[in-house]
Structures are given as structure tokens and as C-alpha cells.
Design goal:
Bound molecules: uridine-diphosphate-N-acetylglucosamine
Oligomer: single chain
Largest sheet: 7 strands, parallel
Number of helices: 18
Radius of gyration: 22 Å
Shape: globular
Structural class: alpha/beta
Strand order of the largest sheet: 3-2-1-4-5-6-7
Mean pLDDT: 94
Low-confidence stretches: 141-145
């Protein structure tokens, strides 16, 4: 039996916080078995992109803060790697838990997979791991070429949200996911198509564990708190210089930050014009990501003026509870985020995704999500179609039930501490 498994839980960008919090809390229930340590790379650093989530999700201040900030992809990844390597050598953790697909996920998986250090626990960890994985019976064939021998001098790497694929390598996240999966020893999937993707890519099925969706764990815990959010009253009482006040029971919520949508000025102009069109029917609430905010200053001045006079209500990034409240009350959500496709499906709120593909197809087949073409008349007409329908139900997706983090921690307990 191994005790006090020193575990690094890595966070970096906004969507990581609500995925790591439930796992951290679950581990904390077993202080004799786990010693969870939160490492924040600092990829996101603004109060409203980072600190607010620690407060709301009741996460302690990160034990280790790398403070890397913004940079080019290479610069940011490299900064995280160098700083993370030093922390690995200093603390010698046994286990690294990574979530999602951001640059911090990639950088930490690369670093952890190449590090080597001595520690007594590591030998035991690898022994137990190899024993457990070999004992697992799966139906598929396992390609032995993927095994590595010299693994007992580095921490074990676990990837949560493994196997998601958009098959679109123009997205930095698709590169990050593929590489992180490749370097991970335990692959925790949130839906069955994640398992299918990994198996069809030749991954050893004995390393794959279908556990469910940790982001939905957080939603289940905090849904009640979010109900008492006053964000709609606050927004509706603000004049905002708009013709109409935000109508509390009738609005569209928008988020937008994918480079493919916001970095290209023509694309951004087109999407903003569509939002102005939609706001003629009902209020649009648009909390703006810092990346998008910067790029919106380049919009042509005529459009900026139209936007100012429209019923599109622009706000700063919004905290977790307020945002959950807005999602649950919206008539429609328009987004290019990954996590929001899942949350709206769970909540039964229609979602139009401004992307040609998604790594979360289950939100289309079993949820409320629809991908739409990036063209102004299509965005407007699809929004109208949704608003005229009233037939959306909360999705009932397997293991999106608030217990994914419990399944993850139980898996660790089964492997290492039983
Ligand atoms: C990152 C993730 C993306 C995720 C998103 C969630 C990668 C490659 N992308 O995108 O998958 O969906 O986070 O928000 O990891 N900025 C600030 N303050 C902050 C953070 C960022 O002003 O606290 C600005 C900076 O100008 C920065 C830009 O936003 O250059 C982009 O930040 P970055 O972390 O590189 O990517 P995101 O677009 O946030």
C-alpha cells in the first residue's frame, strides 16, 4: 500500500479551474492516501480570468505559481516547461494530473514525460501501476510497441478529458490533446467517443478509464449557489447607454475567443454584425474574453458605433457562479467554447457553436448543441429558428452525473492504495 501520494494538479487557463477543483476536493477526503498540490502555471492571470475562480470554487491559493503570463505559443509553452521542470526536481511528485487541452496541459505533460529523478515512492508507484494495468482485461488488442521500460524514474501522468478529437489540426488545442494523450499513462475519458478515438488511434485500452465529465461535477455542486446570483438584476439596472435595458427573462448569451473567429478582423466584424442583428429582437449579453477585447479595438469605427448603440451588452469576463446563472437563464447561447457546449447540454439550454467542427460531438447527438456556418445571415436565421422553438431538454449523458472525480480518485485508490 502506498500512502500520501504526492500529486501535482495542474491549472493554467480559465476552464482548468472548474475541472481540477472537484478532483482536488475528492483527494482531500483521503489525507492518508493523497497529498494533492495545486500548481498554477499563470497562463491566465487577470483576477477575472483566474483568482475569482479560486475563491468561488473554494480552492486554496495555488501551492506553486509559475507566473508565466501571455506569450507566443512557443514562448508560453517553453516558459512553463522550464519553470515546471525546476518544481518537479524540487518536489519530486509521484503523480501529475492534467486536464483539458490548453498550452499548460501540453507543456506540463512534455516536461513530466522527460524528467528523471529518484524517489522511493516512485518505484512502488510504477510497480503497482504495471501490475494493475497488466491485470486489466479488455477486448481490444494491445500494441506492445507503445510500452516504455524506463518509466520508474518519472511521475505517472494522468490526463483527464482524454480522447476528445476535433480532427482539426489548425486548432492549437487539437495538437495539445493529441500530444498529452500520447504521453499519458492513465487516460480518463468523459464520454464513450473519447474511448473510441483512443482505441482507433492504437492506444492501449487497458490505460483508458471512462469516468465521466468533471466539469459537470463542478456544475452539480455549484448550481444551487449560482441560482442566487444577482448578475441579471445588476445588468438590467445598468443603463449601459443602451436603448433597452437587459430583459431578465429574454436574452441571448454570447462568448467568443477562438483565434479562428477573433484573430481575423473580417471574421470578427461579421460575427459582431450578426450579434447586432440578433439584438434587434432580444438583448445579447456578451462577456468579452481579454483576447477578444484587444482585437475588438481594431473593428472599423462605424461598426464600433453601431455596437455601442445596439442592445448588445458588453461586459468584462464574468465569474463562475454568475456565468452559470446566465447560461441557465438564457434563451440561447452562442459560443465557440468547448466547455460551454457541454454545460448548455447538461442544462438543456440551446447552443449554437460558431465552429466548423467540435471535439465534443456528443453534445450534438445527445445534447442541445448545433454547429453553424460562419456567415452573418446563417447565424441570424439559426438564432431565430432556435428562439421560435421550445423543445430543449437537459441531456442525460452517461456519467455526466456529478461523480466523475469520485471515479477518478477511486481508480487511483484501486491502483495504488488497496
Ligand atoms: C486559452 C486556451 C484555450 C481556452 C481558453 C479559455 C491555449 C492554446 N488556448 O486561450 O484553449 O479555450 O484559454 O479562456 O492554451 N489575456 C489576458 N489576461 C489573462 C489571460 C489572457 O489579458 O488573464 C490575453 C492576453 O492578451 C493573451 C490572450 O488573452 O495574449 C490570449 O491568452 P492565451 O492564454 O494565450 O489564450 P486564450 O485565447 O485565453
Amino acid at each position: 500500500m502506498i500512502t500520501r501520494i504526492k500529486t501535482f494538479l495542474i491549472v493554467g487557463a480559465r476552464p482548468n479551474f472548474m475541472k481540477i477543483a472537484p478532483i482536488f476536493k475528492e483527494m482531500k477526503k483521503y489525507p492518508e492516501d493523497f497529498n494533492p498540490i495545486v500548481v498554477h502555471t499563470g497562463q491566465h492571470y487577470d483576477k477575472k480570468m483566474s483568482e475569482i475562480f479560486f475563491d468561488e470554487l473554494e480552492l486554496p491559493k495555488p501551492d506553486i505559481y509559475l507566473g508565466v503570463g501571455s506569450n507566443s505559443h512557443a514562448g508560453q509553452t517553453a516558459d512553463i516547461m522550464v519553470k515546471f521542470e525546476a518544481e518537479l526536481l524540487k518536489h519530486k511528485p509521484d503523480l501529475i494530473i492534467l486536464v483539458g487541452d490548453v498550452n499548460s496541459t501540453l507543456a506540463c505533460s512534455l516536461t513530466a514525460s522527460k524528467i528523471r529523478y529518484d524517489s522511493q515512492n516512485l518505484d512502488k508507484i510504477w510497480h503497482k501501476y504495471n501490475e494493475y494495468i497488466s491485470s486489466r482485461k479488455t477486448e481490444s488488442h494491445y500494441s506492445s510497441s507503445r510500452t516504455r521500460k524506463d518509466t520508474d524514474k518519472r511521475p505517472l501522468i494522468a490526463h483527464v478529458e482524454a480522447g476528445l478529437r476535433s480532427f482539426d489540426f489548425d486548432m492549437p488545442e487539437e495538437i495539445n490533446r493529441n500530444i498529452t494523450d500520447n504521453l499519458s499513462d492513465l487516460l480518463f475519458t468523459s464520454c464513450r467517443d473519447g474511448d473510441d478515438n483512443l482505441i482507433s488511434e492504437g492506444y492501449d485500452p487497458r490505460k483508458i478509464f471512462f469516468v465521466g465529465n468533471v466539469m459537470i461535477d463542478a456544475l452539480c455542486v455549484y448550481k444551487k449557489k449560482a441560482e442566487s446570483s444577482k448578475i441579471l438584476e445588476i445588468l438590467s439596472n445598468q443603463e449601459n447607454g443602451k436603448k433597452n435595458r437587459v430583459k431578465i427573462d429574454h436574452f441571448v448569451l454570447v462568448t467568443l475567443h477562438r483565434p479562428s473567429n477573433v484573430d481575423d478582423p473580417q471574421m470578427l466584424q461579421m460575427i459582431i454584425s450578426a450579434l447586432i442583428d440578433i439584438s434587434q429582437t432580444l438583448s445579447v449579453i456578451f462577456p468579452v474574453h481579454p483576447r477578444t477585447k484587444k482585437l475588438m479595438t481594431n473593428l472599423d469605427s462605424g461598426l464600433q458605433e453601431k455596437l455601442r448603440r445596439s442592445d448588445v451588452v458588453i461586459t468584462d469576463p464574468i465569474g463562475y457562479f454568475d456565468f452559470l446563472h446566465l447560461q441557465s437563464q438564457a434563451k440561447l447561447v452562442i459560443t465557440d467554447s468547448g466547455g460551454i457546449q457541454e454545460e448548455t447540454s447538461y442544462l438543456g439550454v440551446p447552443c449554437l457553436t460558431l465552429r466548423p467542427n467540435t471535439e465534443r460531438p456528443i453534445t450534438i447527438s445527445e445534447g442541445t448543441n448545433k454547429l453553424i456556418k460562419l456567415a452573418r445571415p446563417i447565424i441570424v436565421s439559426e438564432a431565430k429558428k432556435v428562439l421560435n422553438k421550445n423543445e430543449f431538454q437537459p441531456a442525460n449523458i452517461r456519467f455526466w452525473d456529478g461523480q466523475a472525480s469520485e471515479r477518478i480518485v477511486n481508480t487511483f485508490k484501486k491502483i495504488f492504495t488497496v
